[in-house]
Description:
Mean pLDDT is 86; it is low at 418-430. The chain has 18 helices and 8 strands. The chain is mainly alpha-helical. The chain has 2 domains: 49-378, Cytochrome-c3 Hydrogenase, chain B; 395-430, no CATH class. It has helices at 49-53, 58-65, 73-88, 94-122, 126-147, 167-194, 196-202, 210-215, 220-224, 232-235, 252-255, 262-286, 298-306, 345-356, 364-370, 375-378, 396-410, 424-427, and strands at 8-13, 25-31, 34-41, 156-157, 160-161, 311-318, 321-328, 338-342. Helix 2 (58-65) runs antiparallel to helix 3 and helix 4 (94-122) runs antiparallel to helix 12 (262-286).
Amino acid sequence: MNSRIEYWVKIPIGPIHPALEEPEKFIITLDGERIIHVDIKLGYNLRGLEWIAMRRNYIQLLYLVERICGICSFSHNHTYTRAVEEMAGIEVPERAEYIRAIIGELERIHSHLLNLGVVGHAIGYDTVLHLSWLARERVMDILEAIGGNRVNYAMNTIGGVRRDIEEKHKRMILDMIRYYREEVMPKVEEIFLYDPTVEARLRDAGVIPKRIALEYSAQGPTARGSGIKKDVRYNEQLGVYPELGIKPITPKEFTGVIKGDVFDRMVVRVGELWQSMEIIEKAFDQMPEGKIKTFSKDNVVLTKLKRAEGAGIGRYEAPRGETIHYIRANPGTDTPAKWKAREPTFPNLFAVARALVGEQLADVPVAIASIDPCLSCTDRVAIIDSKTGKKKVLTEKDLLKASIEKTKEINPNIKAKPEPVGGICGGVRL
């Protein structure tokens, strides 16, 4: 009778590690080189944003929410303004919607170029890192010219945008697109679509099957790389995107197959670079003249919002995936009663953790990099005992009870009943 002795080893990666762009901790359980379990520890970037938000008015919150994430600063700012506009019934001028679409796609270009470089670095191909990040400087310069900053450009305001795109900015953007089409994209495509060495390294690494992507509610290029045609701009017919020909990008349109691996996620990002450039050109062709914001002054906005009632939900397809902002009015005041943000890294992290089971240890860095994780976006809450100063571990029952109490607080008319749940993270389905 043959017997096999198994040697299980736990290897911690993080919270500070050369393979990670931000603090997070992965505890990898190995049987030899094969991964048999992945545990994720978050909470190293807590900033108490929800607590701060309850002490700011609606205008001040504009500048707080875009600091959730530097790379997706416009996306969070945009999502928040849509939530407030829905809550208060505020209409946005058509020209402002086109400007929002243009800035959003410029941000998508700089985010995708950044991630392509990070993945290249993760496999030791630093030439890719230098190529993509050098090209990214062009779009960063344009965002700085329009908004005044390379990140946190404060373009949105409630009811429109704070700055117009002038003719000189339009020329800069169109010149950038020509430069990318002629100089950058052919090299990027050659590397990520046709280089046999890169394909050999990325193909079949970190596979997230469509079933797993759906089960864990994967977002953005992570979901589309697994064949899920999910894109808020398309599915929700967001703003002027229907007029700009938006559609979800999947690997099948480029390679003819979908495996849901790191290679496919890179293919999606390459495809979306082409798409973003096309959307920007169409936006310039179709953008009408007119106002760029509904209200001339911030105090007029605050006066209207003091009379607002109810709640609003904003949704937007950030470069990493869908962002959601919820806000509830506090009638008679210029501060919200509640504000909450959900970003795409949280579900994507657990999807890739599930995908790593059965993979080799060497695939961990590139698989994590392929979802473009943002931990500053993800970390939200820590429970600290005020008497002892010790952290409190929340059980499944604690989380379920807290969620019921939160639901009743948001809407006292809802009767929430506890139901058995299952999944990762201590049996809580996330």
